[in-house]
Specification:
The protein has helices at about 10-30, 30-35, 35-45, 50-60, 105-115, 130-140, and strands at about 5, 60-65, 70-80, 85-95, 120-130, 145-155, 155-165. By secondary structure, it is an alpha+beta fold. Strands 1-2-3-4-5-7-6 form a seven-stranded mixed β-sheet, with helices on both faces. About 25% of the residues are buried.
């Protein structure tokens, strides 16, 4: 099954994205980082306010991932870093029932094409060290671990991640 990428552009799109993010995050992350950190991170990084801020102030781009039947199965987003000639993939999230359908491969292909069209040499992302599913998927798509980072995100929480990169 193929997917297409629909740009998040309007206020209505942003509202739909925030609701989708809330749903996916509360389904997936509590088992890994707990309820309290999930709630905090959704509010700080995935809420409507955070999405609007990232798009307006940090040039983030978001896309809905839509299957052949027209169903939104997830979302992705990030931003170009012209100073490093890389694209930061901030978010790749799929609904629970849509995982395992090879959509991640198509999303990475989308970013590969995007990087090439913008003359960027690579893409990178961060992945939680406890997210075994994500780590395996990214290795399988050709990413390599380039760094291990732990960032204080406030409220007593930290993001303990690997930074993974792939040439475009």
């Amino acid at each position: 099954m193929g997917v297409r990428f629909v740009a998040v552009e309007t206020d209505e799109d942003q509202e739909k994205l925030a609701k989708l993010a809330d749903e996916i995050w509360h389904e997936y992350w509590p088992a890994i980082i707990g309820d309290a950190q999930t709630d905090y991170m959704v509010e700080k990084f995935q809420s409507l306010e955070a999405i609007k801020r990232d798009m307006a102030e940090h040039a983030y781009e978001y896309w809905f991932v839509v299957d052949e039947a027209g169903k939104t199965v997830g979302y992705t987003g990030g931003c170009e870093e012209s100073e490093t000639s890389r694209y930061f993939i901030s978010k790749i999230y799929l609904l629970a029932e849509e995982r395992g359908k090879h959509y991640a491969s198509q999303i990475i292909g989308f970013y590969t094409d995007l990087c090439r069209s913008r003359d960027l040499h690579s893409m990178y992302l961060t992945v939680n060290k406890q997210n075994d599913l994500g780590i395996r998927a990214y290795y399988g798509k050709g990413f390599v671990t380039i760094e291990s980072v732990k960032n204080d995100i406030g409220n007593g929480f930290a993001m303990d991640d690997y930074v993974m990169e792939k040439e475009a």
